[in-house]
Amino acid sequence: MIETFVFARELFLKTTPFVIATIIDKKGSSPREVGASMIVTQNGLAQGTIGGGAIENEAIKKAKSLIEENSSSIEEYILTDNTAASIGMVCGGSNKIFLKYIDTKNKIYLEIFNRLIENYKEKETKLIFDLERLNIFANIDGEIFPNETISGNSFQLLVKDSIKVFVFGGGHVSKAFVKILDFLKLNSVVVEERAEFLEEKDFPNSKRILIGYEDIDTVNITSDDYVCIITRGHTSDSIVLEKVLEKNPQYIGVIGSKRKVALMFKNISDKYSKTMLDKIHSPIGLDIGAQTPEEIAISIAAEIIGEYRAAPLR
Question: Which CATH superfamily is domain 164-310 in?
Fold first, then answer.
C-alpha cells in the first residue's frame, strides 16, 4: 500500500485534488481485500484498484462528485446475486468504502503522507481512518499525528512495502520470472556471482547484487521476504539454500528435478528442523507441466501469489 501514499504525495505537491478510496469492510464475494485502495482525481481513476467492475465504477463516480463538493464519505456498495452472475461471479456481496477527499491546501495531509513514507520501513506504521469524523491520522509506533482525539469508531491499516522477492541466478528462467514480478508490481532483487548474467538490460527494474554465493551472509534477507533459488547448478543451489535457511524467509523455492531435490534434502535433513525444511518448495513452482523458461516462470509466480494470498495450492 505504500505506493498509494507515494503517489498521493506526488499529487499533493502538484496541487491536484483527489480522493483516496479504501475498502474498510467486505462481505460475501469481492475480488479485493480489506485495505485495498485506489486514488481518483477529477479525470477518473489515477492509481490502484479496489477490484474493478461495477463497484469500482460506482466508487469512482462518487469520488469525482466528492472532489467537486470538497467532502468525504463512507459508502456501502452492494453487488446482488443477479448482478454478480451477469459478470461471471458465483454470488454477490458488499464493500464498505472510505472515500477520503484530500484538500491540497491543507498541509496536514502532506505531513501525514511524509510520516508514513519516511517511517514504514523502520517502525510500526499505520494509517488510522476515523469513521465518525471522516479523517485520517498517522500512527507511528503509537504516536498519533496530528495529535487529536480519535473517535471510538475507527479503522487502522498497517502500512507495508510491496513483497520483496530475492532471485538467486540470472539465467533464462530468472529473466522471464523477473519480468512477471515487474508486472505484478513486486520488488525484486537479483543476486549473481557472474557479472555477465547480471546486466541492467535484463533486469532494469531490479536491485542487482554481484557477490559470490559463499558470501551471501551479507545480503539482507528478512523473515518477510521470498527467496527463489534458480542458479546454474546443483552445487550453487545447495550453497545458497543452506545460507538462506539461516535467514528464515517467508518462502524458499529451489529449482530442480525430483532426483536433485531428493539428494539435496538428504544432505540437509539432519541439520534443520522439520519446520524449517517445510518452508522449502522444490521443485519450485506449481505443477502445471511447464517446460520453457517462460512457462516455468509463470508456475513460480503462481506459487508465490498463492503463498502471499494464502490460497490453497494443488
Answer: NAD(P)-binding Rossmann-like Domain (3.40.50.720)
Helix ranges (H only) for 42-183 are: 53-69, 81-86, 107-119, 172-183
Q: In whole angstroms, give the CA distance from residue 67 to residue 102.
A: 8
Sheet containing strand 44-48, edge to edge, reads 44-48, 37-41, 18-28, 93-102, 73-79
Kindly report, residue by residue over 115-154, the tens digit of the pLDDT.
999 999 889 999 999 999 999 999 999 999 999 888 889 9
Determine the distance from the C-alpha atom of residue 312 to the mean position of all C-alpha atoms in its chain, rounded to a whole number: 18
Q: Per-residue b/e over 121-141, b at no fewer than 16 CB within 10 Å?
A: eeeebbbbbbbeebbbbbbbe
DSSP annotation of 82 reads H
Q: pTM higher than 0.90, yes or no?
A: no
Q: Where are the alpha helices (DSSP H) in 213-292?
A: 234-245, 258-268, 274-277
Backbone angles phi, psi at 201, to 5 degrees: -65, -30
Domain ranges (residues) in the chain:
1-158, 164-310
Distance CA 186, CA 177 (A): 11
